[in-house]
């Protein structure tokens, strides 16, 4: 296992992904590991798409991006559609650079069903036959079938491999939120640079973590940098009592036990009051949003949707309220999803 140290992913490097700033080569003390969030709620869309570069290995993680069809009865504003287009462009560009594509689970904000993204790659994806059910199982099986003859697909659950000086390991299935959740399971990815002794852990939709099982796995990994979804406080009424605070406490426990830094985004940034609600985490100086990791201000457009529409000249047609937490939109015209579910 890697020993802990100072992890790279500095804003000067990461901002290249968004066309911001310039990079004139490595500076003294920089490690070769780069973590570049490509899309996230703090960047305007539902996503955790990330590009990781360790040694000569490029990894594209969870290459999906969506919008919520309805928040407060309102459809996505124009700014959200523009952010989605930019996010998908970035994901496609980094897919061409990656050698490995990792899919943690089969919610539409975490993967693409189009095989073009994966063609010619090694794809490490959540096993669609293990600890999975319903729509996720159907989507996963459909993706694996679509990739036959186009990509090398391997089951990610519990997978471990070494590529030169980079060691990769995948968690067993972890709860998508609270223990026993109906939302199924995700798998986390640990990327360890054996030379630099750095360890990046991508924990996907563990939501805090809300699960003590997920928290224990994260502590066991001893990350130097952790990326995870925050507690879904925007649907707190649908969760067990005290669940959101338990997610905050669990992340504090992970930080204290490992000394790591953390990128916390996704579900947490859907709450218009995220800054105040999670102030005990931001104030540690060790927890930031994906946008802040890139050196950018947060632009949580979904959380700002009411304000975006109030500034528009023409109000939208009313949208019949749905369960907001599982809905997703891929494009304006071709692919629209409206599903029930809790905090996907």
In summary, what is this structure?
With 344 residues, this protein is α/β, with parallel strands linked by helices. It has helices at residues 11-14, 78-97, 134-146, 212-221, 243-258, 274-277, 279-282, 290-293, 305-310, and strands at residues 34-37, 50-54, 57-61, 100-103, 122-125, 152-155, 160-163, 166-170, 174-175, 185-186, 189-193, 198-204, 225-229, 261-265, 287-288, 328-329, 336-337. It has a single domain (32-337), classed as Metallo-beta-lactamase, Chain A.
Describe this protein's structure.
This protein is of the alpha/beta class and 344 residues long. It has one domain (32-337): Metallo-beta-lactamase, Chain A, CATH 3.60.15. Helices cover 24% and strands 19% of the residues. The protein has helices spanning 11-14, 78-97, 134-146, 212-221, 243-258, 274-277, 279-282, 290-293, 305-310; strands at 34-37, 50-54, 57-61, 100-103, 122-125, 152-155, 160-163, 166-170, 174-175, 185-186, 189-193, 198-204, 225-229, 261-265, 287-288, 328-329, 336-337. The protein has a 7-stranded mixed beta sheet with strand order 7-8-11-12-13-14-15. α5 (243-258) links the parallel β13 and β14. It is globular.
């Amino acid at each position: 296992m890697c020993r802990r140290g100072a992890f790279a992913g500095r804003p000067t490097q990461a901002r290249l992904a968004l066309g911001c700033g310039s990079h004139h080569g490595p500076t003294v003390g920089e490690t070769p590991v780069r973590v570049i969030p490509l899309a996230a709620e703090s960047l305007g869309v539902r996503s955790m798409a990330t590009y990781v570069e360790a040694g000569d290995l490029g990894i594209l993680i969870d290459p999906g991006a969506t919008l919520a069809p309805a928040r407060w009865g309102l459809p996505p504003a124009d700014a959200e559609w523009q952010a989605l287009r930019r996010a998908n462009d970035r994901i496609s560009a980094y897919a061409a650079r990656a050698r490995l594509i990792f899919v943690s689970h089969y919610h539409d904000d975490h993967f693409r069903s189009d095989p073009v993204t994966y063609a010619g790659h090694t794809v490490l994806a959540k096993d669609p036959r293990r600890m999975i059910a319903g729509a996720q199982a159907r989507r996963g099986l459909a993706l694996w079938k679509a990739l036959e003859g186009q990509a090398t697909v391997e089951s990610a659950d519990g997978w471990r491999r070494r590529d030169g000086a980079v060691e990769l390991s995948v968690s067993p299935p972890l709860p998508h939120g609270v223990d026993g959740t109906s939302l199924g399971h995700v798998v986390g990815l640990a990327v360890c640079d054996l030379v630099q002794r750095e360890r990046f852990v991508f924990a996907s939709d563990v939501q805090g973590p809300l699960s003590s099982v997920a928290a224990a796995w994260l502590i066991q990994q001893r990350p130097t940098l952790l990326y995870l979804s925050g507690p879904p406080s925007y649907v707190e009424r649908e969760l067990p009592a005290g669940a959101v605070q338990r997610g905050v406490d669990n992340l504090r426990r992970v930080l204290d036990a490992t000394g790591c830094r953390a990128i916390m985004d996704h579900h947490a940034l859907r709450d218009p009051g995220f800054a105040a609600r999670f102030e005990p985490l931001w104030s540690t100086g060790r927890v930031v949003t994906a946008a802040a990791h890139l050196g950018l201000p947060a632009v949580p457009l979904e959380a700002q949707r009411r304000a975006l529409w109030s500034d528009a000249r023409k109000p939208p047609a009313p949208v019949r309220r749905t369960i907001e937490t599982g809905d997703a939109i891929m494009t304006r015209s071709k692919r629209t999803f409206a599903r029930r579910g809790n905090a996907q």
